[in-house]
Amino acid sequence: MKILLVVVGVIVAIVVLVIVGLLVSSKRLDKQNKKLRLEMEQSHRLPNEKQHLLAYGANLALYRSESPRILPVKTGLDTLRQGLASAWDISNSEEAVETLEWLLTEGHRADYNELLAALHAGQSFTAEEVGKSQDCYESAKRELIKKLSFTESDFARVETIAAWDYDRAVNIARWSFIVGYITEEQAWGYIGRAADAASLIFDSWKDYFISFALGRAIAYEGDIYDILWNGKELLGEKDSIWHEFSIKRAS
Q1: Which of 216, 153, 200, 158 is nearest to 56 (CA)?
Q2: pLDDT (tens digit per residue) in 196-244
Q3: Residue 22 half-sphere exposure, CB side, CA atoms within 13 Å?
């Protein structure tokens, strides 16, 4: 019995050490990423007006460990091209423009805003009707409440998943410019349209983040756990781009 207790104690100690090691490693990597982001921001600094526009793409930028304040990214051109082709079917200028126009004029909100309203109202659906969307929606709400202290009243204010479309539009425009599918002028035009539309719809960055997260949950049918820490940084850290700029843009 004593031997068994010793073995169990050793196993527990090893597990604790592994967990601590992973946490330390994660924090070290986060610091390295932030340092690299800061260095890139200093090298490619943009005026505040353009940084404000890029704030509407901050969710996806941080998810990819990129800076939300500048156009350049540390990801290589080949990787960006492959990502655009595999995830978005974008391999040329025409496809880039077509996708950006779709995100800005229709997007997933055209198909899923009605479902969001029904889920908010407490309606229940079968997997045959909505796939994994309802389960992902319910899981997303639980995680947002648990990890970011959001409330039911916070969710009630958000009637659209438009941030899911606009945030992606900002980043698709950014990447499409970097790989040469559109010009910088075109990129800022699309980014500006996304920012203007979001500014009219949302009253706070919290609402914008909820809209993005619920869009990921019900349209993408994805777990939102990997974007929660982006929200925590954007909404909670004093030096974040969302603390510097208002969700509303000057008319």
Answers
A1: 200
A2: 999 999 999 999 999 999 999 999 998 899 999 999 999 999 999 999 9
A3: 6
Count the Cβ atoms, other than its own, within 10 Å of residue 227. Answer: 20
Question: What is the Cα–Cα distance from 196 to 181, expressed in whole angstroms?
Answer: 23
**C-alpha atoms less than 13 angstroms from C-alpha of 15 in its C-beta half-sphere:** 6
CA gap 180, 182 in Å, rounded: 6
Q: What residue ranges do the domains of the chain occupy?
A: 45-244
Q: How many CA atoms lie within 13 A of 139 on its CB side?
A: 16
pTM for the predicted model, two decimal places: 0.86
Cβ neighbour number for residue 191 with a 10 Å cutoff: 25
Please state, in angstroms and as integers, the Cα–Cα distance from residue 64 to each residue in 17, 138, 207, following that order.
28, 25, 21
Q: What is the pLDDT of residues 66-99, one digit of tens each?
A: 999 999 999 999 999 999 999 999 999 999 999 9
- Residue 236 CA to its chain's centroid (Å): 15
